[in-house]
Amino acid sequence: MAEKVIMTSTDHVTEVLDVLSSRGLLLATWKQPDKPNAMTIGWGMIGCVWGKPIWQVLVRPSRYTYELIEREGRFSVNVMPKSLAGAVELCGTVSGRDRDKLDEANLTVSSGEILGAPIIDQSVIYYECRVLHANDFVPEAMVPDVRKGNYPSGDYHRVYWGEIKQCRVDRDALDSL
Fold first, then answer.
1. What would the mean pLDDT of 55-65 be, rounded to a whole number?
2. Cβ neighbours of 33 (radius 10 Å)
3. Which of 42, 73, 83, 105 is the most buried (most CB within 10 A)?
4. What is the model's pTM?
């Protein structure tokens, strides 16, 4: 694997958002020391809040990842190459409560350099984040058609505001997105 070089949080944002909306990204957390978990996300935002680079990620309380982020207070967002779309799909269809999705998908993980968040080694771009704030959606404040179309069972997301502490890119692999 080529060395990943440090980048700013705004480098390659267009490419990252394209992958987010088309195939999804992997949000990684720790189940326990040296035991990672990942969840596919298709919604999120990257930007600047409080003068800090931020990833906003949405996780439903019913998801195992919710419990892990609540406990750990850190996560990574991993942009995977197109060739690993099947691995991203797998991580979005089974629960880490019962299965080791990363092992099944043949993905390996290392600890991030800044926070020790799990980083998926095969990612082209990754962001290591610490949770600065979390808030729950307020159903009554949501436009009715969005609420009905996205939350028919009432399982509303919690939004995590993750400060991007480090981001890296494998420039040699950018064309694989």
1. 97
2. 7
3. 105
4. 0.94
